[in-house]
Write a structure and sequence with these properties.
CATH superfamily of the largest domain: NAD(P)-binding Rossmann-like Domain
Largest sheet: 7 strands, parallel
Distance between the termini: 30 Å
CATH class of the largest domain: Alpha Beta
Helix content: 25-40%
Shape: elongated
Strand content: 15-25%
Number of strands: 12
Structural class: alpha/beta
CATH topology of the largest domain: Rossmann fold
Order of helices and strands: EHEHEEHEHEHEHHEEEEHEH
Number of helices: 9
Length: about 270
């Protein structure tokens, strides 16, 4: 039995993860963490997630329960996750990271920690999305420079980063297949007299509205035809189940920086 700890237990993803653990063979929830000042500290995490009591109370410090888990699943904030990764590395705990929006310094912490522990980092843990990464790479390889490429995404009004980490990962998949540097070719907004489109660019469009869990589309448009690769998430359980699949896979690893593509054997 693999013992799982979840940070951000009171958030939308935290609750979905708690529910998903209760439905997954071979895993058990051993710890749930929230901010030290959260009013949820001391609350039964099962009741918090709406699945009934599980006798795992929410705590306000990861260090407080560091001995109680094998793998930490962290969908929180870049600052909190970077600190949690350092703590996991110190105590030899593995970590599945679903946080997005890291800066270069925080990414260095992730990379450094992966030399001591096994770390899985992904912008999106849904199996279908990771398949789309591979399909987008394949499409870019085949269609090459004969198409214009645009990536659009829609998320709920509470999402704080844009474009989404998933949209950026799709961009990286496409740019890599075309030997382009995404930092140089990405266009994140258009307004006014922009002139004719440069075919080498990869455009991004972002929408924030309502309670949309997450929609992503990569458009490959040529003269006379277009190809669209789309993924639509209707429930956070898709992300939660994928993260737990990653936790199971990661448990057998000792060190290294891994991705959901590795988990699904798509890095061929």
């Amino acid at each position: 039995m693999i013992n799982i700890a979840i940070t951000g237990a009171g958030g939308r993803m935290g609750k979905a993860l708690i529910e998903a653990v209760s439905q997954t063979d071979g895993l058990q929830l051993s710890a749930a963490v929230e901010r030290p000042d959260s009013t949820l500290v001391g609350v039964d995490s099962g009741e918090l997630a709406g699945i009934g009591r599980n006798e795992v109370k929410v705590v306000g410090s990861l260090k407080e329960i560091i001995a109680q888990f094998d793998v930490l699943i962290d969908f929180s904030t870049p600052i909190a996750t970077a600190n949690n990764i350092e703590l996991c590395a110190q105590y030899g705990k593995k970590i599945v990271v679903g946080t997005t929006g890291f800066d270069d310094q925080q990414l260095e912490k992730v990379d450094k920690a992966s030399q001591k522990i096994a770390v899985c980092v992904a912008s999106n843990y849904a199996t279908g999305v990771n398949l789309c990464f591979k399909l987008a790479e394949l499409a870019a390889t085949i269609l090459g420079d004969d198409v214009d490429i645009e990536i659009s995404e829609t998320h709920h009004r509470h999402k704080v980063d844009a474009p989404s980490g998933t949209a950026l990962s799709l961009g990286q998949s496409v740019a890599g297949a075309l030997n382009r540097d995404l930092k140089e070719v990405a266009v994140y907004g258009r307004e006014g007299q922009t002139g004719a489109r440069d075919r080498k660019t990869i455009g991004f469009a972002t929408q924030r509205a309502g309670d949309v869990v997450g929609d992503h589309t990569v458009l490959f448009a040529a003269e006379g035809e277009r190809v669209e690769i789309t993924h639509k998430a209707s429930s956070r359980m898709a992300f939660a189940r994928g993260a737990l699949r990653a936790a199971k896979w990661l448990h057998s690893k000792q060190t290294g920086l891994h991705s959901m593509q590795d988990v699904l054997s798509l890095n061929l």
